[in-house]
User: What shape does this take?
Amino acid sequence: PPAYPADEQEISQTPIDLRPSSQPGVISGESISFATLKALLRMLAPYKWGVLVSILLGWGTVLSGVGLMGISAYLISAAALQTSIAVLQVPIVAVRTFGIARGLFRYLERYVSHENTFRLINRIRVWFYQALEPLAPARLQHFRSGDLLNRVRQDMHVLEDFYVRVVAPPVVWVLVTIFTAGLLALFSASLGLTLLVFQVFAGLVIPLLVRYLNRKPERLLIQNQAELSAALVDDIQGMAEIRVFDADESHSHHVRGINQGIAVIQARLGKINSAVGAAETTLAHLASWTVLLLVIPLVSFGEIAGVYLGTLILVTLASFEAALPLPQAAQVLERGSAAAGRLEEIVSTAPEVKDPAVPIPAPAGYHLVIKGLDFAYSHLDQNQLEQQVLKDINFDLPPGKRMAIVGPSGAGKTTIANLLLRFWDYQEGHILLAEQELNCYTQEAIRAMFSLIPQRTTLFSGTLEDNLRLAKPGASLEELEQVCSHAQLEDFIAALPKGYHTWIGEGGARLSAGERQRLAIARALLKDAPILILDEPTSHLDPLTEDKVVRDLLENFPKNSMLWITHRLVGMEAMHEILVLDDGQIIERGIHQELLELGGLYRSMWDLQYQVI
Assistant: This one.
């Protein structure tokens, strides 16, 4: 899988080291590892200077607040002692300076940190999609679409919080603690040590406690949110079936149960966060009271001037601003670990099909030969037994030949198309294109040689023209009209108010099954590839339209090789060869009349189909 992006040209070779769980979409209970944290931080390498600037700006923000509080206290105390206005000019200017600087630094810090984060998340999204695309369709069948959507949206959002709230605040806290403890130590070592002890509790002990308390609920929250997203997508996609079978209540109960679980987890996290906020504020005030108790004797004995008493107390109180974000940083750290693990689970999944290390040039011809082909689908679950789908398949498809593969459902017909398009890789036997093994070419070069009319048509939310141009973006209107005429769509499109600019709805919901299938035929013809694979191309068409489409395809594309995969025996008389598959094996082969005279499975299918008609 592609590694995390390091910079504009370089790709990092250190992916997140999280062991994916045995079931897709389930989060491991392990806490974040050092390797995971290191990998997450390494992704910031291209933006290291921006991160450094955001840290310095954050440090400047807190120190401006410390300076504002401390100088203000000194100014009030000095003014109460009726100090000369000339002496007070410097602290007056300092108060104004720190007041303006605090707002300016805060704005710049937020701007720089979010700019870095948004740029990084943008690159991560591209990186994740580049890892996701090679998994389709073989590996993605093991994941729910709603869960994948949640990984792209929710988990990316969690990583956004991770880089904003986890990276800079701890460094800012360390710098502020060192500076303010050193400042108090100039007056008395005991004051600096006192502040350091309270800061360690506020910035280290409490965040570690928060991380321990939040570890399980945070991971359960991520898991339940993914489950809710998957359930909602399933319910929306299957809403018609849910209503037809009166299953509204059971599905609603399932969604309510997940939602209630999320609410319980969020309530628990809210209670923890409230207690943590109270603890942080209490520690800050305890620290200031302790400093006050230590300063009073020092002032009484003249070791520290009384004018500094208020300054030391308010400097102590203001310094805890740097510790306040750290409990939330610990919480986001755990959440980011879970999100990174879910993303890594996808990325670490090995693609079923890979391009060769040194691919050969694109095929010069399109003579297709299959010899001794055996195939079994592989599974992510290693305990699941593999079932042999194809056994000793042999055929020859030279340019211009029309071949049909027929047989009952589940015989392995569609699997042959999947192997030719390199959606899966074959284990045994040979598939030769232009006398070279199919897996010696790149996937892109292979798929350029084929047009597919799939058994299950996928249309996108857009216009008719948008869906047609998927096959050939630069196609002219005349080309669109020509292929639609071959697919018997011209009358239908002419009757639409907006013609080719008509919106067809999500998944082609505004079209009938037959119209969707004819649109898929037109799209495949528009690609104009030398080999045309038709997988049940007329299963949703009425007999009259089916006959017109089949005759048009056979008459108008004589130069294209055709691999016609079907169990509907229409147009078989025009096929140069027919293969009959059953249980993954070719049990009969020949032309239409020969197979009828043979009296085998093909004859039985033919008699049954035309008896029904």
About this structure: The longest helix spans residues 248-300. The first strand starts at residue 368 and ends at 376. Residues 1-31 have pLDDT under 50 and may be disordered.
